[in-house]
């Protein structure tokens, strides 16, 4: 190092893969604006030195966007959209392009050819990328996902090492000021919101919705009646159940939440109805079937 020159600590190398149509459509539907890649790349650079950043789409449909990508150090990867039904594209129906496949192939190629990259960041909310996230993590790499509220799979968010909502990065998306609410009432709101979106009310789903509703929710910031801070989201929900806000049902390895007074077995997405006591004749018939 030359005298008088201070080298910046850059951290580990980072690769960014952007499912462009997912983030583009999601931000326009949710916020009425285009995604701001300056916000995204600024956050990605906090993980280390970004050595790969690519966005996948049919750029003939988004030709004005590519300049913004280049300006933020993002390489547009062209993936054509195919049509069927007629020779004339305008009269044919569009088939979903293979952007997801191209993204996965590039990410896996990078995983095996660039061992220097320690952090992978996916900009998407599509649950189809869960196997990719799992594969990257199995190679000892850190995976972060950036997605848009309401458009991100809770299972994708749960599978990554870290999940960030897009609106948490954007300075121009300011949530309205509201009176502070009881944190367990917010849990009930999250449960009702999950039902409105036709999602199962699992721990992973409700925790994601709590972050969506509050922006910076972390169960470790709250304590039970004895003043002990929660270490798991499940313990937080247990306290809400103790206070009569929700009720829990655990079947196998899945825990769901319901409102007080509801029949969990009737509403559950996973549970079988409780077993009734079989008569002696029923038990004998089962034994005979097993012998045969």
Largest sheet data: 6 strands, parallel
CATH class of the largest domain: Alpha Beta
Number of strands: 10
User: In CATH, what is the homologous superfamily of the largest domain?
Assistant: 5'-nuclease
Major sheet: order of its strands?
A: 3-2-1-6-7-8
Q: What is the domain tally?
A: 2
Strand content: 15-25%
Which runs of at least 5 residues are low in confidence (pLDDT < 50)? Answer: 286-290
Class by helix and strand content? alpha/beta
Task: Identify the overall geometry.
Answer: elongated
The pLDDT mean sits at 83
Describe the structure.
By secondary structure, this protein is an alpha/beta fold. The chain folds into 2 domains: 13-168, 3-Layer(aba) Sandwich (Rossmann fold), CATH 3.40.50.1010; 183-267, Nucleotidyltransferase, domain 5, CATH 3.30.420. It contains 11 helices and 10 strands. It has helices at 20-31, 37-44, 66-71, 99-113, 130-138, 154-159, 183-196, 203-214, 233-242, 264-267, 280-291; strands at 13-19, 49-57, 75-78, 82-84, 93-95, 117-123, 142-147, 162-165, 247-251, 254-258. A 6-stranded parallel sheet has the order 3-2-1-6-7-8. A two-stranded antiparallel sheet has the order 4-5. The chain has a two-stranded antiparallel ribbon with strand order 9-10. Strand 6, helix 5 (130-138) and strand 7 form a beta-alpha-beta unit. Helix 7 (183-196) packs across helix 8 (203-214). Residues 286-290 have low confidence and may be disordered.
């Amino acid at each position: 190092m030359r005298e008088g020159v201070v080298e910046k600590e850059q951290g580990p190398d980072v690769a960014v893969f952007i499912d462009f149509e997912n983030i583009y459509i999601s931000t326009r539907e949710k916020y009425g604006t285009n995604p701001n890649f300056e916000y995204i790349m600024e956050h990605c650079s906090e993980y280390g030195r970004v050595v790969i950043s690519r966005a996948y789409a049919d750029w003939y449909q988004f030709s004005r966007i590519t300049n913004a990508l280049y300006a933020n150090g993002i390489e547009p990867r062209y993936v054509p959209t195919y049509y069927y039904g007629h020779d004339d594209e305008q009269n044919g129906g569009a088939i979903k392009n293979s952007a997801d496949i191209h993204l996965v192939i590039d990410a896996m190629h990078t995983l095996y050819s660039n061992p220097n990259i320690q952090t992978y960041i996916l900009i998407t909310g599509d649950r189809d990328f869960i196997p990719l996230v799992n594969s990257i993590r199995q190679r000892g790499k850190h995976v972060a996902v950036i997605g848009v509220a309401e458009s991100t799979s809770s299972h994708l968010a749960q599978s990554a090492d870290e999940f960030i909502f897009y609106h948490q990065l954007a300075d121009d998306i300011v949530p309205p000021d509201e009176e502070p609410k009881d944190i367990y009432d917010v849990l009930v709101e999250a449960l009702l919101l999950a039902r409105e979106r036709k999602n199962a009310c699992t721990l992973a789903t409700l925790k994601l919705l709590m972050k969506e509703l509050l922006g910076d929710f972390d169960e470790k910031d709250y304590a039970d009646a004895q003043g002990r801070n929660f270490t798991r989201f499940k313990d937080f929900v247990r306290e809400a159940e103790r206070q009569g806000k929700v009720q829990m049902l655990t079947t196998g390895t899945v825990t769901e939440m319901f409102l007080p007074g509801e029949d969990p077995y009737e509403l559950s997405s996973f549970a079988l109805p409780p077993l009734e006591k079989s008569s002696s004749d029923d038990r004998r018939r089962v034994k005979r079937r097993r012998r045969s």
